[in-house]
Amino acid sequence: MKTINVVAAIIRDGNKIFATQRGYGDYKDGWEFPGGKIEPGETPQQALVREIKEELDTEIVVGDYLTTIEYDYPAFHLSMQCFWSTIVEGTPVLKEHEAAKWLDVENLGSVAWLPADLSIIELIKEQLIDQIAAEVLHKHKGAFESLAK
Predict the structure, then answer these.
(1) Which end of the chain is less enclosed by CB atoms within 10 A, N or C?
(2) Looking at residue 149, what is its pLDDT?
(3) Three-state SS for 94?
(4) List of residues 6+ apart from 64 with CB closer than 8 A
(5) pLDDT at 134 (0 to 100)
């Protein structure tokens, strides 16, 4: 079975994650995390920056590695490296997708994710909640310390 190596951006803005709906191909209308194929000579991070610029006309910073999804579709095996990402310039413009949504933790399951992407929704929820909690604690550290005195 043919293996396709791709990268995906888990783009975060506050408590929301960016999701896109495919506009073409066998999996048209399915929801996914944006990204694409790694070209020869590219690192996964370089591929992700390039793909997001091409697909969404937006610049991102690639953050921490999240996970690699290994998923068997009927015609191919998908190996998808996923990275937390943040938009640093621009507003997403849909060049290849039908639709896009910013989804909070409670609504991450509200779209019809493609099977490979669906497999990491719970991990994203867990890590997003942990990240938000850490940010709140850091922001209010002084208040917590004064309460403890």
Answers:
(1) C
(2) 63
(3) coil
(4) 83, 84
(5) 84
H helical segments located in the chain: 44-56, 115-118, 121-139, 141-148
pLDDT tens-digit profile of 114-130? 999 999 999 999 998 88
Q: Does 65 have pLDDT greater than 80? A: yes
Angle between helices 121-139 and 141-148 (to 10 degrees): 60
Domains, in order of start, for the chain: 3-148 (3.90.79.10)
Read off the amino acid at residue 107.
N
Question: Taking a C-beta distance cutoff of 8 angstroms, is the pair 31, 38 a contact?
Answer: no
Cα–Cα separations (whole angstroms), residue 36 to 9, 99, 132, 135: 9, 17, 28, 30
Tell whether pTM > 0.85: yes
For 33-49, the DSSP string reads -SEEEPPTT--HHHHHH
State the average pLDDT over residues 2-18: 96
